[in-house]
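Input.
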Amino acid sequence: MARPSDRKENTRDRILDAAEDLFAQKGYSGASIKSIAERAGVTGAMIHYFFHSKEALYQAVLERVALELYELGMHVISTRKPAMERLQIYIDSFFDYAAKHPNFACLTRMAVGADRELWRQVVADKFKPLFELGERFIEQGVKDGLFKPINSRHLISAFYSVFVSSFADAETLSAMSGIDFVNPKEGKARKAFLSELAFRALGADPKSITSATSKAKIKTKTKVKK
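Output.
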């Protein structure tokens, strides 16, 4: 049986999921508390219990998508894996994040009075530190001879746009290309393509990860036998 605290958390998440979808689809003004409550399967009173106001709910939606990306990035950076493996993990993780939050771009474009200032603060607290860590990671890779010299700011900005827009504009891209951008199988192929593209842009060979991983496994097995 679920504990009361678990049930509260699940309800809160359902509300945030519904609000994220409706704010992105209808804008701040068009998404009513009633429509969000109906989508989440709760009452309007329940939304006010958790968030007190529509503005507070919108703020919580923004903060959640930002915090999730920040924690993802910090987790990858804090691992002690080789640089190439960390790069692969982050590319895969960011792609999955963008897939989970296809409305991300719509939410970040919304300007709702004082909430524009809130978003600037969220960017300053969460996104900018991640961006700067990414810059340092690439610059260190260049110094270590892993990557070719490249403008790290332009590269990170370009791939951020590509990953986010491939889900935010999935309908348009599908119509133009004939590729079903919503199909999970196509998503898997797209992830592999973008991963290779990122490695090539850095002058790195994505096969080096598989090679290094295989060598590490062989080395581990040898130690175990001894």
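The radius of gyration is 21 Å.
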